[in-house]
Please model this.
Amino acid sequence: MVKTSVLNHVSQYVTEQEGPFCGPFTFDMELPMKKIKVTAILWFVLLSIPLVTYAASHGHGNAHDMQKKHDGMSSDGLMFIVGSMTSKGVKGMAHLKDASEAMTKMGMDTTHHFMIAFVDESTGKQIEGGTVALKVTNPDAKVGEAIKLIGMDGHFGADVVLDMKGEYHFRLGTKLADGKKRKYHFHQVIE
Model:
């Protein structure tokens, strides 16, 4: 009899409580399933961290990582003003930076960093959003593949290989934040 009264007393206490275990013999199956799902997700995340770290350390990072790599060339190399041109009310100002020394140290063939900044002539404000693509024509008149420029620190830029002496042409197609398509053309002699 003592065992039964103790069991009734515990059963009454458990019944009055709130939570996943309610009543004398009630068992909520959702709790173990939630625990299994959470545990599986945690294991997946924990096991994928080394893979992500490995990929990032072997050159498979994002554009921001690439920009960090190029910060070393910010003080090296000669900067050329390639020119400026206005298209449909937006002025594009292009520059080239000799990055060959810094890139050689990193084991890359890149010789220059091409960059262009856009300013809305009516407002004087810099335009930082949109899509910009570049095609480079080398001194032998060979047109290279289109290169997508990445937005960074107030300009759009990309690394290019200008390994021949002579005049290069830089043709850009843009679709900036206002949605209008524009074209720009610059040229620079590399000695």
In short: Confidence is low (pLDDT under 50) at residues 57-75.
